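step: validate -> pass
step: tokenize input -> pass
step: predict -> running
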Amino acid sequence: MKIVIQRETFDLGAEVDAMSRGRTDIGAIASFVGLARDRNEGSGVQAMTLEHYPGMTEKTLAALVDEAKSRWTLLDVTVIHRIGRLLPGDPIVLVAVASQHRGEAFAACEFIMDYLKTQAPFWKKEDTPEGERWVDARASDDAAVARWNTP
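step: predict -> pass
step: emit ->
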């Protein structure tokens, strides 16, 4: 398991290669890469700044990964989240999940990302033509998490 909060960018190919190198038990790796957009809530976004709560953020992400491992048979998980100033098109987050079968990898990847959006202590401030603004959680993110709690 790899959980990293960093300022520098990441390389999806290198991360997947590192996850699978020398492994013959992995049958599937599902990944998600979130990118900074140039528009949000009807306004242009020139840049965004991501902040986190050091120590607590990593602990929260580890708990999310542990929860995913309790639901699915996972062989490895990588979560990388960037902080600092990001420009449109920059990668923000990577979630990669390895398992024996694709269904578990896809489900666990989506689960981790859904919970990361609502539970991990990150704060996002956007620079727009109208000025700076803090971004609130979206109802659609809460709805995505709620579906994992239904039997």
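step: describe -> The chain has four helices and ten strands.
step: cleanup -> pass
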